[in-house]
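Researcher: Please translate sequence to structure tokens.
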Amino acid sequence: MNRFVFVMAALASLAAGCGSSSPTEPEGESVTTTTFTVPLSAANEVPAISNAEANAGGTATIALNVTKDASGNVRSATANFQITVTGFPAGTTVTDAHIHNAPAGTNGGIVINATLTSGELALVNGSGSITKNGINVPADRAAAILSNPSAHYFNVHTALNPDGAIRGQLSTGTVTGGIGY
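Model: Translation complete:
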């Protein structure tokens, strides 16, 4: 009877995944982070900003965290945003920030929302910063950004410039990670 219990326990241990991949860590997957550092300028908006926010600028650091399968296809992704802005008039209300799909000189649709709410980034003295982490990114959109970052731009919207106050194109990012399971 003891041998039967021992054999059954050993079989249960093998069935539970001992020595094989689990569903949360499939064999052959890799996780990478591509970091884009995007200089933002009012002059990059289309059309360029010429009102009280014309001297505004900043930087967006976007970390795109991607899980790829063994074939290199993007399975899932999230983004972390670190947004720093300067040169705005004191009291400016930031209303939103996004990644759009369009090359330089062209406006395009929003493809990833940084999930800011109006006034969340307070610019009491005309500058400020905010971090937004763990924003879900559709796998196909992450793949599109990685394959052609310059076809995407990041911009910050304000109450005075609801279509965008400062903007910058994504360019080649720095990749870290790639560890398989």
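Researcher: Any highlights?
Model: Residues 26-180 form a domain with the Immunoglobulin-like fold (CATH 2.60.40).
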